[in-house]
Each structure stands twice: as C-alpha cells, then as structure tokens.
Amino acid sequence: MIDLHTHTTASDGTDSPSQLINKALSSGITTLAITDHDTTSGWGEAIAASRAPLSLVLGAEISTLTTEGTSIHILGLLFDGEDVDLQAMLTDTRDTRIPRMRRMIELLAADGIAITMEDVIAATPKGATVGRPHLADALVKNRIVASREEAFVDLLHNESKYYVTHIAPTPESAISQIRKAGGVAVIAHPFASRRGEIISPATFSDLVVAGLNGIEVNHRDHSQNERDQLIEIADQLSLVKTGSSDYHGNGKLNALGENLTDPEEWERLESLANARRVVRK
Questions:
Q1: Which fold has domain 97-156?
Q2: Which residue ranges does the chain devote to CATH 1.10.150.650?
Q3: In this model, does residue 196 exceed pLDDT 70?
Q4: Cα(146)–Cα(86) distance, integer angstroms
Q5: What is the three-class DSSP state of 155?
Q6: Domain boundaries 2-95+166-280, corresponding CATH code
Q7: CB count in 10 Å sphere of residue 140
Q8: Is the pLDDT of residue 59 over 90?
C-alpha cells in the first residue's frame, strides 16, 4: 500500500510525524510520503520514528500560483533536503503566510466574526506552517463554526470574500527547483474543482517542459470523470499516475490510504530522482 501525500503537525495535520508513522504501520501502509506544506521541518522526527517494514518518502507540498493567479500545489518528493535554493524558496513561501493571515482575519472581523491573530497562533502547533486550517481551528474553538470542514465550506474556500491569495512561486519554477534538487515533481489534485479554479488540460504540456514527472490522479476530490481525464492526459504526456489520501489527521475526512499508488507507477517515479533517498530501516 503506497500513499504519497500526507500531512503532519509540521503544517496543518493533527498527527505528529511519529504518530503518523505509527498509524501508517498499523494501517498496513508499506510506503508513506510525508509532504507538509512548504516545509521539511517534520523530516527529522519522521526519520527517527520510521521502522521496518515501512519505506519513508520525504517531501513537501509546495504552494504555487500561475501567472493568472490560479493556485496549484506541487508535490516535491525525494529531493535533497539540504539544497539551499529549494529551502530558500520554501522559506519565502512560508514568510508570506503571516501577512496573508492577518488580512483574512481583518476581513472576517469587518463582518463581525470574532477572531484574532492570537487565536490563530494559539491553534497552530509549535513550529508548524500557519495556514487556513489553523484559522479554521480557531473559528471552531471560538464556536463560530462546528468543524474545519464547515469553516472551509462556509468561509474559507478559494472563492470566499474572505480568501486572500499569497505570494508564491509559479508552478514551473517550483517544478524546476525540485528537479534541480534531485527530486521528482507531481501535481497534486489538479482537477479538484470544489477547491476553486482549476487548470486547463493544455497547461500540463507547459509543466512537462518545466520537468513535471507525474499527476495525482486518484484523490478524494476528483470525480471518476476527472480521474479518467487525468489518466488520458498522463498517458498522452508519459507522466506517472499516482494516488494518495492527502491525509490531515482529524482535520479532514480523508482516511489514510483511501487512495493509493500502483507499485509499478511508484517504481517508475522513484527511478526518476537523481538518487535513492527512500528511508528504509
């Protein structure tokens, strides 16, 4: 069982890296990727907690914006975590999250929704990348909504009047940086229309030129029709097809291992990195 997209308390998950490792082992996951948003800070704990028979894949989900302002997430896997340029890109992306969060809070407060930056910081695990899920948690704690899911449906989705975009690299530059750092790049949930604007099929060709290696086809936010379209695009462009849970712990309904990657597709994807970086003990 291969799950290539999960989150921990290093970003917006509710399980620590070690807790996630334990859950993966008990769930029968054989290969697990930890891909926190714009950070590798959970890698150390995950490596320490990992044990046989689990194979641990280290990565990050990088937030990007097209020149038209469409949000795209790129999964970087198996890259060199010491690469200076890639770490600088992740740091720059994280640094834009604080002013973005302050503006979203201002917009909510202007409509009488009682929330402060202090509330959000209190809801953010120490060292985690601040994001909308932590704002959602603060809204839950303040009894404004009942759950993270409700917060996103009613207030924090990409088309909401309270949504504020952030400065981020283009998907092409993120993909290029991942590849330069020796890793592989997979576009995450590209046709998840309920998250907001999605890219057109034609966009994939430009991403392939930048170095894209794969498409996350099997994801909870893709309908069967969307999956079929993505399979066709992947086959036409010779891209690896992946599947994953996008697990966030208690923060989302996504269950660990609910969508998986075929072992042959994973073997192909791993072979495209410039070194064997899977952690096995």
A1: DNA polymerase; domain 1 (1.10.150)
A2: 97-156
A3: no
A4: 38
A5: helix
A6: 3.20.20.140
A7: 17
A8: yes
Neighbour count for residue 241 (Cβ, 10 Å): 22
The pLDDT-based confidence of 69 (bands split at 50, 70, 90) is confident
Give, in order, the Cα–Cα distances in Å from 225 to each of 33, 70, 218, 264: 26, 22, 11, 23
Six-digit token string for 117: 């930056």
Rounded to 10°, the helix 171-180/203-210 angle is 30
**C-beta of residue 259 within 8 angstroms of C-beta of residue 244:** yes
First to last CA, the chain: 17
Distances (CA, A) of 147 to 8, 38, 236: 18, 24, 40
> What is the C-alpha separation between 189 and 199, in angstroms, rounded?
10
Of 146, 204, 147, 211, nearest to 176 by C-alpha is 211
Strands 184-187 and 71-77: antiparallel
Within 10 angstroms of residue 244's Cβ, the number of other Cβ atoms is 29
